[in-house]
Specification:
By secondary structure, the protein is α/β, with parallel strands linked by helices. The chain has helices at 21-30, 42-49, 58-63, 101-113, 130-141, 180-193, 204-235, 239-246, 270-280, 286-296, 298-312, 340-350, 371-376, 388-393, 396-401, 416-421, and strands spanning 11-15, 34-38, 70-72, 83-86, 118-122, 150-154, 173-177, 198-200, 321-325, 354-358, 380-383, 406-409, 425-428. Strand 1 (11-15), helix 1 and strand 2 form a beta-alpha-beta unit. Helix 7 crosses helix 10.
Amino acid sequence: MAQSKGKKAKTVAVIGLGYVGLPLAVRAKERGYAVIGFDTNQEKIALLQKGKSPIKDDFLEENLPQHRFEATSDPKKLRAADIILICVPTPVDEMFYPDLTPVISAATIAATYAKKGALVVLESTVNPGVSEEVVKPIFEKAGFTVGKDIYLAHCPERINPGDKKWNVTNIPRVVGSFDAAGLELAHDFYASIVDGEIRKMKSIREAEAVKIVENSFRDINIAFVNELARSFDVLGIDVKDVIQGAATKPFAFMAHYPACGVGGHCIPVDPYYLIERAKQSGFDHKFLKIAREINNSMPVYTVELLQDALNTVKLPLNGTHVGVLGLAYKANIDDVRESPAFKVIEQLEKHHAAVATFDPYIKSRSTAKSLDALLKKSQALVLVTDHQAFKETLTPALLKKHGIKVIIDGKNCLDKQAFIKAGIIYKGIGR
């Protein structure tokens, strides 16, 4: 439910105005809260102060102009907040080791400026134990007694960029806290902004574990079908057809599909948080590590498919002009976080291919100005992102017009038989 009209609106502060924090800030404003959005990125703040979204997103483009909030890079503004939401990234480094620096920094800012009685919610995805071992001590060092004059909770973010059905307004959430009072405050806040179930977890560690389990589940299942794809390619079986056949079973099967890599802010990252934290406690997550290894290997495998396909038309990868279609990690958005496209490009350049790129959603980072410009300079293509524009435009006739002999469909989204019938070398992932 929204804020009661007869009462003074509570103030919500959101630390981190990215794909998670920005929609939350807009939603809280829409539901009657006074909202302060804090971010250290000055360009982002400048855009928001003009009522413009720094992120391409249907929800934001529709709602931000109507529900503008105070955007600032001044942490002192947080003193007015009754509720502080921490929505900062939780990345891994080059060795896949979790980097909690953004969480520590945001929690330190919150502890420095939070007023007594405030509710502070960590939305960032973390491994079980971070709230207790990292966040809580920061507030205690600042002089707060958790559960008495400050309330700490965890509500792991759930956001699916580009999803027209599920967004910040209706995706069910889970909350956990150190104490009953904090749990009630967190539950009541999320119930006021989300039109979906808000489940209370028995402990804050359980709440932390929920998100890790969600994304590890997906990672493991994707790794399974990626391995099947490589196996079936050797056996001459179309893995996409097999999965669609298996999906006709109305119970005990959930279809996942192989691809040239796994991207995004969650699936390629979150399992490492559990792997490393469990390792510190003496447990070895062999299954999760194998899944990560398989999924991390797919960009290399994709380039190997291209190399084999080029061999059939007597072209070496070295020196061949290869067009990479897509930079975003998923279709119809401009989000490049952990996108496999960059690993594919890295592998192509490692083999001295002449690489050109184009993404209609990320033209500023594309080397070609248009799809047509990319096709004109390409001898072979690797489709990394299944943007609708690519699926609608890329036809065998178009490729033949530009003399393109090979296409690697990294998302298995094109008409395989049509390309083969036209005499173009087509390879998908497992098909």
